[in-house]
UniProtKB/TrEMBL annotation:
A Pfam family hit: 2_5_RNA_ligase2
Gene3D superfamilies: Cyclic phosphodiesterase
Keyword Hydrolase on entry: yes
EC numbers: 3.1.4.58
Keyword tags: Hydrolase, Ligase
Organism the protein comes from: Stackebrandtia nassauensis (strain DSM 44728 / CIP 108903 / NRRL B-16338 / NBRC 102104 / LLR-40K-21)
Lineage: Bacteria, Bacillati, Actinomycetota, Actinomycetes, Glycomycetales
Function: Hydrolyzes RNA 2',3'-cyclic phosphodiester to an RNA 2'-phosphomonoester.
Enzymatic reactions: a 3'-end 2',3'-cyclophospho-ribonucleotide-RNA + H2O = a 3'-end 2'-phospho-ribonucleotide-RNA + H(+)
Name of protein: RNA 2',3'-cyclic phosphodiesterase
Family annotation (SUPFAM superfamilies): LigT-like
Similarity annotation: Belongs to the 2H phosphoesterase superfamily. ThpR family.
GO MF assignments: 2',3'-cyclic-nucleotide 3'-phosphodiesterase activity; ligase activity; RNA 2',3'-cyclic 3'-phosphodiesterase activity
Span of the annotated motif HXTX 2: 119-122
Length: 176
């Protein structure tokens, strides 16, 4: 469950990444880029309907908001993912993530309960030392992409890889 940035925002990020170099890391691929609001994991088809109902209700009462991809971070204690962070209306983003998670809980749909950390994964460090990972995070620290409007939630199904593939099952326009 997530938000897909605008094509212009994704193109800008794709143009920036060669500046920092991803040698020693496995790039994730532009077609997979999105901001995860809640990671659901395996979900059978009957539960997709439960998620869809919760997200339909939520999207009717939530307005779109402005974001930008900016800065660098890592996920995991061992830096398993090199990521770009967010800027803009991060208060609205965090509130949306919490509303999505509340809707999933009410629907009885299990999801990863780790605290929400807005990010877009650009690579998975493979053969990089912690110092090399930190150098890439620092290089991403200078990134400040164009503003875009978060206007629809997307329910994704992931297909393991490599490479991992994401399939958009359903989109929910934010109409509040």
């Amino acid at each position: 469950m997530g938000l897909r940035p605008s094509d212009a925002a994704l193109a800008d990020l794709a143009g920036y990444l060669p500046r920092i170099g991803l040698d020693g890391a496995r790039p994730t691929g532009r077609q997979t880029w999105h901001l995860t609001l809640a990671f659901i994991g395996e979900l059978d088809d009957r539960r997709v309907e439960d998620v869809s109902a919760a997200l339909t209700a939520l999207s009717r009462t939530t307005a779109g908001f402005a974001l930008r991809l900016a800065g660098g971070t890592v996920l995991g204690r061992t830096s398993t993912a090199l990521c770009v962070g967010t800027d803009g209306d991060t208060t609205a983003l965090t509130a949306l993530a919490e509303r999505v998670r509340t809707g999933l809980r009410r629907s009885g749909v299990p999801f990863d309960e780790r605290p929400f950390k807005p990010h877009l994964t650009v690579a998975r460090p493979k053969d990089l030392s912690p110092a090399e990972v930190q150098a890439k995070v620092d290089a991403l620290g200078g990134y400040n992409g164009p503003s875009w409007r978060a206007e629809k939630l997307v329910l994704y199904r992931s297909h393991p890889g490599p490479p991992v593939r994401y399939e958009a099952l359903e989109r929910f326009p934010l109409r509040g």
